[in-house]
Specification:
CATH class of the largest domain: Alpha Beta
Shape: globular
Largest sheet: 6 strands, parallel
Helix content: 40-55%
Order of helices and strands: EHEHEHEHEHEHHHHHH
Number of strands: 6
CATH superfamily of the largest domain: Response regulator
Number of domains: 2
């Protein structure tokens, strides 16, 4: 099955670079490119890609607004991945809240791009370990605990809460299995239950929810190890 991708960046060289890397993959097809947020919304609606690589700062409409508009209007399971520089800002966090499935550094090794696209297309979240801790630590402190989120949290079993804590730490299924002494299949079942009960799209939103609900707080856990 071919994964279709739209690449959005206002710098033509960067945009073409990402597209060229992906075009060499037999299971990935770049179906559209865009240089502004408004163009991103238009080409996404026209081509209906599986994944959108979205820059943050662009003319006409920034990546945050474009992400929110795309997710709100899509009638297919499109995934948006935010492209960012090394120094993240609040737009990245807000983009995750808007429905983005994660974010990637623009200077990531080329060989890591295709696996990242496959992960997102398969329903996984992308939270780059090198910036996740900074992102959460810097901006989650300013968020008041969401009482509605806390009520949703109450629907989880104790084991499901344990799994959500591990997701907030950026743990993989294998790491959750090892850390909680449960089988791999059981981990998948718990992760699916957590997402379904909380009404979340993917693991990236699970991280945001874990902090907003007060289940975990910045500095309480090491993230990204």
């Amino acid at each position: 099955m071919t994964i279709t991708v739209a690449v959005v960046d206002d710098q033509a060289l960067v945009r073409r670079g990402f597209a060229m890397v992906l075009q060499h993959q037999p299971d990935i097809e770049v179906v559209a490119e865009a240089g502004t947020g408004r163009e991103a919304v238009e080409v996404t609606r026209q081509h209906r890609p599986d994944v959108v690589l979205m820059d943050i700062r662009m003319p006409e409409l920034d990546g945050l607004a474009a992400t929110a508009e795309i997710i709100a209007a899509a009638d297919w399971p499109v995934k948006v991945v935010i492209l960012t520089t090394f120094d993240p800002d609040e737009y990245v966090y807000r983009a995750l809240q808007a429905g983005a499935s994660g974010f990637l550094l623009k200077d990531l090794p080329p060989e890591n791009l295709a696996p990242a696209i496959r992960t997102v297309a398969d329903g996984g979240g992308l939270l780059d370990p090198s910036i996740t801790r900074r992102l959460i630590g810097r901006f989650a402190r300013s968020l008041a605990e969401d009482t509605a989120a806390a009520r949703r949290l109450a629907t989880l079993t104790e084991r499901e809460r344990d799994v959500l804590v591990e997701l907030a730490k950026g743990a993989t299924n294998a790491e959750i299995s090892e850390g909680l002494f449960i089988g791999a299949a059981t981990v998948k079942t718990h992760v699916s239950a957590v997402l379904a009960k909380l009404g979340l799209r993917d693991r990236a939103q699970a991280v945001v929810f874990a902090y907003e609900s007060g289940l975990v707080t910045p500095g309480e856990h090491d993230v990204g190890y």
